[in-house]
Each structure stands twice: as C-alpha cells, then as structure tokens.
Design goal:
Keywords: Hydrolase, Membrane, Transmembrane, Transmembrane helix
Protein name: A24 family peptidase
Family: Belongs to the peptidase A24 family.
Number of helices: 7
Distance between the termini: 18 Å
GO molecular function, one term: hydrolase activity
Number of domains: 1
Organism: Collimonas rhizosphaerae
C-alpha cells in the first residue's frame, strides 16, 4: 500500500514540481530520437541543461541545492561518461544527455542515475548481442576496452582506440537506456529504495 501512495506522490510531483515532469519529457524525446535516427539533438540537451540550471537556481529543491549543486551534477555526469566517449563506446549526444540529467538531479542523484543507466544499458547490450548471435565478439570488445582503459590510466595517456567495423556488434541507441535508467532511479527514489 505504501508503494501505491509513493507512486501517487510521484505523479503529483509531476504536476506540482515541473522539474521531474520536464526531465522525463526530455528523456522520452531523446530516447525516441535516438531510437529512430541514432542521434540526440543538440537543441534538446542544450535547452534541457539550461532549464535544469536555471530552475534549480530559481526554485531549489532544498537549502543546499541551487546553481552550484546543479552544475556539480552536470559536471559529475559529464566526467562519468567521458571515458566511454574517449573509447568511442558512446556518442557525444549520450554524454551531453547525461550531463543534462545531472543539471536536473545534482549530486548524488546523477551518480545513481548513471549507475542505473549502466545496468539498463548492460542488459540491453547483452540482449542485443544474444539476438544478433554476437556475444563472443561483444565480450572480446569489452575486454579490449577494459585493457585500453587500464593501460591509459597507468601510462597517463589519452586512449586512442576504436573498434573495427568488422568486430562491432552493431549500434545500440543508448539514449533509450539513459531514459529508462534515469526514470527507474526517479521511481526507486520516490518509493524510498534509494
């Protein structure tokens, strides 16, 4: 029964606090765009980031929230995704979308949203690889990426890696995983699980 009331509160929050509703709407548009054309538009991430920063400054969620809190979330989201972008495992639109989410959620919310996104993305990637009978290639690619990340961290140089098209498992619209993972985190937080 408590879960039902928590979900009602979440629905009420969509009306009383536009922050959550706007974030979910932006995530739906981004996921749909990524699904259809494998691109997340810059206008969406830029306007969403601006809204998150401005709204959190004008109407902070709590006394410690505000512009710096929102900017810290943006920066943490960006820093968590940049290694995957450097390895060409993720597109720039995905990185900008997570940074936008950070502007809405601040710290530590963005950390949990990114972890949720990684879980959803991992499950989607496994399903995609199994469906395309390419699990061995995918696991080999993951092994290579981890090795390159470790070597670049130890050696202190920027990784210069890419996966050959012949070894690629295919394109996965990661904006969908970001949308599902972030929304899942918001619901779990509202239900009191996080």
């Amino acid at each position: 029964m408590q879960a039902f009331y928590s979900l009602l509160e979440l629905l009420g929050m969509l009306v009383t606090d536009p922050r959550t509703g706007v974030l979910i709407a932006l995530l739906i548009v981004a996921a749909a765009s990524d699904w259809r054309v494998y691109r997340i538009p810059n206008w969406l991430t830029a306007s969403g980031t601006a809204f998150g920063l401005i709204y959190n400054t004008a109407v902070p969620m709590s006394t410690h929230a505000g512009l710096l809190w929102a900017f810290d979330g943006l920066l943490l989201g960006l820093l968590m995704m940049l290694p995957l972008y450097a390895l060409k495992a993720m597109g720039a639109g995905d990185v900008k979308l997570i940074a936008m989410v950070g502007a809405f959620l601040g710290v530590p919310g963005i950390f949990f949203a990114v972890i949720s996104t990684f879980i959803v993305g991992g499950i989607a990637a496994l399903g995609f690889a199994l469906f395309n009978r390419a699990l061995g290639r995918m696991l080999g690619n993951v092994k290579n990426m981890v090795q390159i990340m470790m070597l670049s961290a130890i050696g202190g140089f920027r990784p210069d890696a890419h996966i050959d098209a012949s070894k690629s498992v295919g394109k996965l619209p990661y904006g969908v995983s970001i949308g599902i993972g972030t929304t899942g985190y918001l619901v779990a937080r509202q239900l009191g699980y996080l």
